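ARCHIVE CARD
SHELF: 3
SLOT: left
DATA:
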Amino acid sequence: MKKIYLAAAGILAMTAAASAADFPMKAAMAPAPVYSWTGFYIGGNVGGGSSTVAFGDPCFYCSSGNVTKGFVTGGAQIGYNYQFGNGLVGLEADVNGNNINNKFFMGGDDTNALNAGLKSDLSGTIRARGGLVLNNALIYVTGGAAWADVQQSGVEVCNSLTGFCRGGVATFGAPTGITANGNSTTVWGAVIGAGVEYALGPNWTVGGEFLHTMYQHTSANIVNASGGNSCAGNNNVSATNCVITSQLTTDVARIRFNYKFN
């Protein structure tokens, strides 16, 4: 009987040792937890790009052109992602501050010329996102609506050294009284883009994004010092078309940081 107990004890000891040796291997072979992109997030962005403004003229100055200039931008975004397998859809809105300030010397080869400009300090987008999830990496495309607060300006100056300028102005560079200034207004447009994002942990992500945006035209009336229509009597321009137009287009590359809520 004693020999039977000893044999049984030996078998139990060997089984326990084998199980203990097998445990680390099973633990090492256990699948790593899969990151989930589903949820609300909020974050910030910073970057830069180029702004192009197309200035148009109905031939009061018979001059038009495109001006491209670099600018910096930064702001905040908020959104929601929904992951299904390796696919993802989402919705995002952002607001950004910019230092866009493009200028064009319209009619620079004439006696009278207009210093035209367009500024934009604030913009934003409302975009859908769709992408491919590779565990903690995301590749996506995006598109939707965009808006920007813009202000168009224009001041005519004497562009002659001989003194034969509009309104009897004889000083080179002096205002003649003709302006084409517009009030600050919100313009809408469309935006498309693409980006990549990487999860640093359960809550934080970092990524890069490129966006191309085109906004609608704006216009400002060409008026004299008393506020009257400056195109009256001009055979080239009808009184109803006495405006300077501008259209803003931007290309932006930016870095994003997001905090995802569990």
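SLOT: right
DATA:
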Amino acid sequence: MKWFKKLPALLALMMLPAFIAPVAGQTIDEILARGKVIIAVDVTTPPHGRIDENGKPDGFDPALARLVAKNLGVEAELVPVTSQNRIPFLLSNRVDMVISLFSITPDRAKQIWYSNPYANDASVLAAAAGVTVKTLEDLSGKRVGVPRRTLQDQILTDAAIKDIKLMRYDDESTAIQALLSNQIDVLGTGSLVPNELNKRAPGKNYEVKIVLREAHYGIGIRKGQIDLQQWLNILVYTLEKNGTLNELAVKYRGAPLPKLPTL
């Protein structure tokens, strides 16, 4: 069964953590004492996150989350989140950290802290080859779908394009399914998604039309967690230097990463 057909079960899975009492650790020592690290991950945006054939989180971000647990020497509990609830889950102590296509932005940094970047990407507009979109003005009159509270949502909202039909979805998989079923003309997404679309729905030749903004992903934690941020920075540094991040990138993204910046 294709990943985008699993939406009902996926949404039910995402709702389960909302009923869990806050259990997140505030320090590395608390996480070690508990013997488990609770990490929020995206499972709706391949190749960074999806649900595999066994119903388990898979992709670049879940793989990195499991490496975090392995290097801490604790069990990994992966909690599916969407773009709009990952910060609330973090701030309400439902998770210890977020590894979920979390683009580093000054606005988000008012609420949470980030590790150094572990991957790069770009927010883009994607559509089938036959759809003409060369500038933002070309979106006038078109149905454009975006996941809520993503960079592409923010950029297109701020652009205030005349007559755009901006349609917001609760998660990436719903927005993608809207594109595949011709409910929208253009999708605001990550730069790697069109390749995934073409694997699953060949023939329309989905492609990037406009790059809205380059981005880097960081691991999100609560403000003030200095020891956890330091440890995560060292882990990201180590995984980049020993080639592990590139191995994950080749496996899931199809190409090695460029040199990553530090904060």
